[in-house]
Amino acid sequence: MSDPSDRFERAAEANARRVMARPVGSRAVTSGTSAPEGPGRQSTAPGGWGGGVAVDVQRAPEEARWTLDKKGAKFKDLTKSEEAAFDAFQNAIHNEGKHPREAAKEARDANYKKLQGDQYQIRLSGGSRATFLVQEATMTVKVLQVGGHT
Known about the structure:
By secondary structure, the chain is α/β, with parallel strands linked by helices. Helices cover 25% and strands 25% of the residues. Strands 3, 4, 5, 6, 7 and 8 form a six-stranded mixed β-sheet that branches. A two-stranded antiparallel ribbon has the order 1-2.
């Protein structure tokens, strides 16, 4: 493992911060460092890279993620099993950004079901449900009630 006080580690960290601060699609200027040519690389001078020539900076695009909003939700008493099912559902949305339909699969046999309009529910157990709104435009799951039967 590298020592954070190592000058090479500090230089790499500074370079990474500088590159990541640039807008997506910006171009970086090379400093004369030599790098091998290959797919996706641009040769800047005979025999290598360098001479202050601009090259593309590439970053993976940010992937859209679903969010969870529990403000104002009503929570009823849950068994440990029901709590585990709801936790699996909400963690798949909150931590992994999954669509609620996919998150419901994490909650075992959740029976993801549309009720009316943008209101949906999943089954936490035979007699307990979680009810929520699926707001596609904002990629938000607004929790309405957890526990009980709707």
